[in-house]
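*** Fold description ***
***
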Amino acid sequence: MSSLGELRNVALSARRRGPRVKTRFTDNKAGYAFLAPWLVGLIVFTIGPMLYSLYLAFTRYNLLQPPRWIGLDNFTQMFSDERLWNSLRVTFTYVIVGVPLQLVIALVIAILLDKGMRGLSFYRSIFYLPSLLGGSVAIAILWTQVFGKDGIVNGFLAWFGIDGPGWISDPNTALGTLIILHIWTFGSPMVIFLAGLRQIPDMYYEAAQMDGAGRLRQFFSITFPLLTPIIFFNLVLQVIFAFQSFTQAYIVSGGSGGPSDSTMFFTLYLYQQAFTQLHMGYASAMAWFLLVIIAAFTGLNFWLSRFWVFYDD
């Protein structure tokens, strides 16, 4: 008797829920319709290719013949690939040197612009412009002219009797010119720093001035601690972007990573393996290896943030 009662209750409950679920779907169908294009794009153009590249990472595939399953061979091959480790060394140098210098310059410019000077919108646009153009092919070509043997930089040095090298063609200076190009695109983090500076209450500075604190003391005791969440945000973003840098090295070196592999970024070597050597399986394994490196670097940044990032609760 009790079992029949329970079944009746379940049936009545389902009958009551049915129209409600249908009504909820009808009410939200406009939202689902707007969401559908993004969802389809995410599955077709992001998740689908990612899963397929994961499959290719365990195969030997040259784009002309069907993929052949080889297990972990592509990953074990990385350990004996000297050019891959050289590309990692070049990329790490680019990230570790370029990103901190870019953030320091972005912060200094943001502090100067935060002083309420006239024409702030104009200067903000001028300084932001390199961020929009820095990754373009045109700017990379221009960079080869500026730092070429007969470029503007050597022309400037010639006024002082200095015979400059071919900055792009010299293995000792080629990577440095790409780091300078990366630093030059400081506009994006600068705008974020500027927004963070505007959020710091003036009463902190007024109280510090009444206590006789100078500008340097105000920066290290007020500005820097309250700005650490913004610095951390910019650091994570710029590290991820720097690891994926490709266009500048490709254009400056003509796609070779030269001279002497001094500008062979990891992404450039990956491109060569995929579309020059037609080692698509090996390139897919490299892509997943890079993903793991970026995830590890980002995780390390989050772990270290507990020691230097302060939140104003």
